[in-house]
Amino acid sequence: PVSGRPADLLACANYCFEAALRLIRPGKHIRDVSEPLQKIAESFGCTLVEGVMTHNMKQFVIDGNKCVLNRPALDQRVDDAAFEENEVYAIDIVVSTGDGKARVVDEKQTTVFKRALNVEYSLKMKSSRT
Fold it and tell me: Into how many domains does the chain fold?
């Protein structure tokens, strides 16, 4: 069992995720998501981490065009759009008990590979190409 501030942090992340799940619906707008998440985080005495965003996904594309800033900042802006049917979103919720700014703890490098859509891949064998 977890108690104290770690329990508040986990409960805050859970409630923020549930709220985002209910707010990302067809007909609603991107601008409607971040304010309720901020209020939930404040009620738990936590802050959402800057720079973390929820974004839509397409086939073979990890990062789509539509994205939602969980914690809007002055130097970051996203275009407002409506959520539509049959869109898939990766909901990322990162909550902190501190000031909400990410810091490097360990210098280990992580690598994420994704396909470059503008590069044409040709297969070696003719049967593979067909």
Answer: 1
